[in-house]
């Protein structure tokens, strides 16, 4: 399946201040997420931002907050973003068939969200260099499980160029600058 911008909605999962410092390779993850978000914005992909129990885990990290403040935010206590009825309704109202996922932790909230989205009939794309967990083994195992379940793995650079599709696309030069 080829991933097309007009078919996609992006879900950011729980990239929050009090958990983020404990996440494996968090500096690289943050850099990758910033590039992904900027690239998805160039393609006018709608965003849905999820935050797990903000009182305990805090807000979205500042470097991402400024990129996502304009989009709908949903607080949740369920691990799956689909467990929040308002959040699931927001995904459905976008009318897209493909959901791009990034966030933390891969083996808990990202995994359960992806599995629920599959059950809801969506195609799910996981950006493997834009997800992480506290332990690398948990991330790796979750990605294997997700692939076996039918989730499409990709990287932020591959995804952004797939969405661009052509060197003559109006955002090609900007995407190229982002990934260098």
Report on this structure:
This protein is α/β, with parallel strands linked by helices. It has a single domain (5-179), classed as Rossmann fold. Helices cover 46% and strands 20% of the residues. The protein contains eight helices and six strands, in the order E-H-E-H-H-E-H-E-H-E-H-E-H-H. The chain has helices spanning 26-42, 54-57, 62-68, 85-93, 106-119, 136-149, 156-164, 172-179, and strands spanning 8-13, 47-52, 73-76, 98-104, 123-132, 152-154. Helix 1 runs parallel beside helix 3, helix 5 runs parallel beside helix 6 and helix 7 packs antiparallel against helix 8 (172-179). It is globular, with a radius of gyration of 15 Å. The two termini are 26 Å apart.
CATH superfamily: Isochorismatase-like
Largest sheet: 6 strands, parallel
Q: Given this structure, which CATH class is correct?
A: Alpha Beta
Strand content: 15-25%
What number of structural domains do the residues give? Answer: 1
Nearest-angstrom radius of gyration? 15 Å
CATH topology annotation: Rossmann fold
GO molecular function, one term: hydrolase activity
Keywords: Hydrolase
Protein name: Hydrolase
Pfam family, one: Isochorismatase
Concise summary:
The chain is α/β, with parallel strands linked by helices. It is built from eight helices and six strands, in the order E-H-E-H-H-E-H-E-H-E-H-E-H-H. GO terms for molecular function: hydrolase activity.
